Amino acid sequence: MEVSTSPTKWQLIRGLPHETLSRIRNERASRTKVAVVDFVPGKETPSMKQITNSKGLADCLNETATPNATRLYVVEDLSRDVIEHLGSKLDIDPQFFREHINDYTWYNVRDPWVELPDLNIVSRTRPYFRLTYIQPRYFGTLDSLKRARKQAGRFNVLRRLDEDNDHGSLFDDNNAMVALVRSKASLWIRPASEDQQAIGVLLIDPPITEGFPLWKGYRPFRNSPCPSEQLPEGFDRPYRASLYEELLFWIRQTSQEDIDSIEKNPKAMAFRILEIICAEWLTLSRYITARLGQIEWEIEKPDLFQVKRDIQRESINFNKSLTKLHTWRRRLPVYRAMVADMRTKLFPDPSNSSGRPDPPGDCIAALREDFTIVARHIDDLLSRTERIAAVATAVTAIEESRRALEQNKTLGRLTYLAVIFAPLSFVSSFFSMSANLADLTQTIWVYFCVAIPVSALVYLLVDKNWTNNLQGAYDTAGKAKKKTGGLFWHRR
After folding, report:
1. Which helix (H) or strand (E) holds 130?
2. By CB neighbour count within 10 A (0-12 exposed, 13-18 middle, 19+ buried), where does 24 fall?
3. Tens digits of per-residue pLDDT, 361-413?
4. What is the C-alpha end-to-end distance of the chain, expressed in Å?
5. Model pTM?
6. Where are the beta strands (DSSP E) in 241-284?
7. CB of 421 within 8 A of CB of 427?
8. Residue 384 Cα distances to 288, 322, 388, 418, 433, angstroms
9. Mutual orientation of helices 444-462 and 368-431 as an angle, nearest 10°?
10. Which of 140, 146, 219, 399 falls between 20 and 30 A from 2, CA-CA?
11. Strands (E), 275-373
């Protein structure tokens, strides 16, 4: 608990001077940004207050609960004080906080912080779950991307940006970059009982303010008003620079029907963050679709991507396209597993005795189709990637065959040169055995009389198809003669 950040980051900051390290650790340990949301049945909008220090959080946890209200704590980032106050007061399993800290998709064999998977018979009884998703973010310059990395380094949780620098296209800005931000949201739920209210704790990631969401972010979760409609009161847009503020904006827009559905399904407290996560997955699928289309275009029309029509340059460009393709072949199965895990936790299979079906009519059940669409998109993209890989493999084989053919032609030319000059070298060496060079002036004609027939004879011995070539030339001459003769008689 005294480390105050993820183990990976602690290795980077523990070598700082003592005063600097002490100041950083104290700030990280006491970092608090929590919103307390009370959903009261019969009340149109949820009540909300924000807490920015650990003492305020402790006082809030000791307050008397609002009657019949369901309380949700929205926590941005994690810290020692937040974990201690929430964990001790609400009796939360420490594993809930631990699973939210890192963002690894795989581990090295020597990593001590590895999170081994649990058996379903154990995990299905836990009152919490985590949701992983990817946020595509656009950066106009490389300096902006570097500043974003520094921002992510100041988080207590470990969140990294996967650069997409190998997927640049002809239509991209040379200095621009798209990065895929690994993100998590974790929800803990304590159902209501006779002597205590229902409480939820939602952990979300801090914001990266550098750059901006790809394509300016997802569309609002409501229909735009028609020209004939009067603009409803409070019709505004969310603040897109911070997930925390963005989520609170949409929570304020929660309808009375959705508030009432929390009693049926406590997961409905996280309805708004689930909408955001689903929208981010749809944006990511649209981005991958664009990149795969560009890869197909590069394979189909290399001339548009400044590739010269020679074998070596085409091969280099083709290898770059394959490198881009293999990146998505590696990432898409991971994304599919993330989506499948979310669907399993949010929508238990009714046919499975271990899971209970969602109550009918609640807002979480209404999201089932949206997450099904996301899963279908990921499956389609993975299938498309495999099809492109099959086509690319076939094109590679064709290119290799054409390259081998060109090399064979080159070797054939060298063979012909050797066939011609080898007899000449032999004859010249034979006649050069005379010690008196003046005598060669009278016999030089003999050299040509012997060398030329010998060269022709050796060429005919090497070229096995000379008879076919001769026959073809004879047939061509015969056809030309007949055509000329027919034309002559026709003119007469």
Report:
1. strand 128-139
2. middle
3. 678 888 899 999 999 999 999 999 998 888 877 777 777 777 777 777 777 76
4. 111
5. 0.77
6. none
7. no
8. 11, 14, 6, 51, 73
9. 150
10. 146
11. none
